[in-house]
Amino acid sequence: MLILAALLNNPVYAQSVEDLDETVESDDGRNSRFGQDEVVREIVKGAYAKSNVGAAGYLLDFNGFVSVGTTVGLSGGYDFVDREKTSMAVEFGVWQGVHNGCSVERQGTPGQMGTCKGNANGKPSPGIQGDLRTYSFLLNYEVSKYPTRRIGVGARLGAGVLLSPLLIDETAWQTQIVAGEWGGFDPGYHNSPHPLGFGGVTLEYYSKISHFSVGADADVFYAVNFDLGFTGSGYLKYTF
Q: What are the pLDDT digits (tens) for 99-120?
């Protein structure tokens, strides 16, 4: 009876309150909620879709002739390495840039001095169509480190092609501008694709809303026979 009474009188401890944001490393190195028998992924990695909105500008020949404009991008990618402190991904994206530019009348003949802001800074006119629209098709590799569980800091490196189509009638461009205003000179910015390379940094925050994260990308790019430029954008990302 004494033994039975001792067993019945053992104190019963209430279940402690757990910090669901505290993690332990599982056998495969992934993050999981602390104190649960099964692994529950609060940070989802894998195939994802991503939308960027930001600004872009040019740094060399177009600077002073093309203003900083807006850029938007739609991308899809896959995290092929997923560890507690490191991830790696490949990503393909389509980007559009829209810029206001100095008119061809104010630029004058390419290589000469006109009345654009860039000319006032001592730069000859590059010979662009004025307002500019670009389309870029990009493939990149990204590696990120995680100083905390929900924040990733990474680097990006990629390549692709940039197109800048004419925004005016082709016949008017050739007859009135190239043959007329510019004396037959066409720098070729708008009639051929331009190979492009870029590199930059990325910052990502994994929200507590499952599958969603937000972040920012900043890149410097160079398009062959076009110009050196930069982009900076924020993004919303959904991982499936």
A: 999 999 898 889 999 999 999 9
